[in-house]
User: Fold these one by one.
Assistant:
Number 1:
Amino acid sequence: MSHNENQISGLVIKQVALLAIILILAALICFNLALFIPSLLGAITIYVVCRKYNFYLQEEKKWKPWVASLALMLASLIIIILPLYFIGDLLIEKLGNAKVYMEKFNIFIEKIHTFVYDKTKFDLLSKENMTKLKNFAGQFSTTALSGTFNTLTVVMSMYFILYFMFEKPRLFERILASAAPLKRSNVSLIGDKLRKLIMANAIGIPVVALGQGIVALIGYFIFGAPSPILLFALTAVASMIPIVGAAIIYAPICIFMIAEGQTGSGIGLGIYCLVVVGLTDNLLRFTLLKKLEDIHPLNTVFGIIMGMNLFGFMGLVFGPILISFTLLLIQIYRNEFSEDDTPELELSSKDKNKELEERIDLIV
């Protein structure tokens, strides 16, 4: 083998050098504009949700671009942003005083622990575990709330970005498609999957959460639960967590009410939540979410944990999207560069698409 064959070609060196420069510049941009990352994610989310309506208004109804953009921005503000802001603001108002909140939380935990121990002689929470739980609750609530205080800045910059996306949508999408260093089939796959993920996380999951929260709120009022409005917000947020869901809120409340002597109300609320709230959860998940996108529960769990740390309450939506999108990029990488016998994506046939997605889809 000759010496020249062992040398790295000049083309590869140029590619690596150019890629390194791109990565360095991208890192510098992201580092200095990190404050606007939640705004960008929010703008992309709302753009995808309102995309077909934007095209309808501009291309079929012949609305002026700026009129259509402002109309959709106002509609998204009323329908999407304000409900999320209401829940976040409610939690900030109720939990903003950390000292008072932690005192109430400590009393709440102590009553539940004492009641369970007296009835079962089982030390559900030792002193060490109770201390850890209290510290975790205080730290987590402080982190989540602090990430939400800049909501106004995020929303304003988000709509600033969104306006320019809405005004010339075809140009915006053409620039993104042409800039992607991928096969056209993979660009189409990214667009389709990203749309489904955003619709499921930005529309489906919040609708399920709001539905469970409202149904639970009715039960809280009927059975006289303490602070029903606060419990509504907490239940709506907790219902986004797979497996445990809203039970992580209403189960301790039922035990607390029984420990306070409200045995009938506590048991009644427990039965109501198990049957009615649980039925609402299953009904919405197996109808609405299945139609939008079947996201793996682990994606949601880890996405919420990561998203809350990064973006505050907005991370409830953006976190799972980032996790799922990362897995999608791994799939795209394999499609682009793998030399195995996995067939290339063919987007001309819907049936072939469906069959292929069932075999290689990492998101579901």
Note: Residues 342-353, 355-364 have pLDDT under 50 and may be disordered.
Number 2:
Amino acid sequence: MIDSSPSSSAESSFRELDQAFLQTQTRIWLGEVLNTRFDQDNLNISELLQDGEILFEVSKTVWNLLLTKCMELRHLKHKYGPFGSKTSSGRYKPYSNVDSFLKTCKILGLSGIDLFSPSDVVEKRDVRKVCICIRALSKKARSKHLCVPDFDVVICSSVAMPTDMVGVIRKSLESPQCSTLSSSSSFISRNTPLKKPEQVCR
């Protein structure tokens, strides 16, 4: 029997708004980082990320930003940092691309609960988890004073929802099930000047 109660309807509506908010913010944030624009009419976010190429480009951008801040990372024994030698090809290349992104996330300090499995992207198993990881990456990078936009405040004009609903969604994303990151830097505007840290890397 289908539950048509008001509470069930409200929960379903919240899930839809949550999904729309995450996917739209992810698309805009990725475009901001890579200085491009991903047309919403062409591909949905799961198809956009499926080959791992965009995630790979984002990981390179974040890695280069990290290198400029953290001098000791330049002396890593691994010449290519988290990127390996890029020898994978064919059907394995998307997994290699995603793996590079996940390695960058780990180097930045994201923990297991923030991450996703490569199959969540390549096989489109859990796009929401991927979006949450990208949001966590944004927050962690900003906490290290890397010049990336704030996931929560990049302009999202195509998803109309009440302001209070946006707040509820953001709070739900801060819950332990979604992320272990602190919410203290969640809503810093990307136009707000960041203070130069006394010690860049620890």
Note: The domain at 14-173 is CATH 1.10.418.10 (Actin-binding Protein, T-fimbrin; domain 1).
